[in-house]
Amino acid sequence: MTTTEYQVSGMTCGHCEMSVREEVAQIAGVGQIEVSARTGRLVVTADRPVADDAVVAAVGEAGYSAVRV
Q1: pTM of the full predicted structure?
Q2: Region 16-35: what's the mean pLDDT?
Q3: Which domains does the chain carry?
Q4: What are the φ and ψ backbone dihedral angles of 27, each rounded to 5 degrees?
Q5: pLDDT-based confidence at residue 25 (cuts at 50, 70, 90)
C-alpha cells in the first residue's frame, strides 16, 4: 500500500469533498480516499503507486487544483 498526501485549493463544503472523492476514485488502484474541505487535505491510499499527474488531473476534473505535499 502507498499513501500520498495532496493540498487541494478551492474546496469549501461537503459537496466539494464528494466531487474530488468521485473523480479520484476512478483512478485504477486507489483504495481509500480521505478529503477535507476544512483543511484542504487529500490523502490517497492505493495498492500500488499512483502517478501524481493522475491525481492532480482527477482533482482538476472536479474543478479544483492540487499539489503533492
Answers
A1: 0.95
A2: 97
A3: 2-68 (3.30.70.100)
A4: -75, 130
A5: very high
